[in-house]
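Researcher: For the annotation table, I need structure tokens for NAD(P)-dependent dehydrogenase (Short-subunit alcohol dehydrogenase family). Please keep the output clean. Sequence:
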Amino acid sequence: MDINNSVALVTGANRGLGRAFAQRLLERGARKVYATARRPETVDLPGVDVLPLDIADPASVRAAAEAAPDVSLLINNAGIQTGTDLVSGSLDAVRHELETNVFGHLGMIREFAPALARDGGGAIVNVLSAMSWFGGKGANAYHLTKAAAWAMTNGVRLELAEQGTLVTAVHLGLADTDMAAGWPVAKIAPSDLADAALDGVEAGSAEVLADQWSRDVKSRLPLAPEEFNDAMDRALAALTAA
């Protein structure tokens, strides 16, 4: 797929990764960029078409699909992290993360799949995380949602192959955004993450490992669970001590 002359829709485009995606799409020649946010007045990027969207609200998702029937590239970026554990944390918070990070993305795909089919297939980018593959105290609800979103991405890729839709999973460690502001470690620039993802779309890639951290974590998946956990403990300790 060629980004130039595409019609893209980006969720969570008012800041962070979403804003970077919208900006790089414009700079790379997209014909139209729908920039969506729960509070559309917070979208400040010139040249985009602003739409209100709450991906956890099916009616809002349906309205966005009706307002943007010409989309050829869907960027599922919006997400939340509540800092909740699975056993001791609020079950309502766990459900809220699942509704947003999994069912929100799936709802977008279900509503926009017909438009992508009309365009000849188009493409979907799901912004996931290296935490698709590992958890940690204070972030296990997030790990659950990203692991489920990874499985969902793999499933819809198979289901949409017949209509020619590319589904690209993008994994990263930490990006230099508000969500990662409390981590004094090396982070990928949002524009670099957006470029890596869009390069992957143009190359027809099913998966993009956007930084060294995501590549390192995935390389450890063949290990036994105990070995994997030990390796991740050492890696996290080294990361925070650097």
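Researcher: And a one-line annotation?
Model: The chain has a mean pLDDT of 94.
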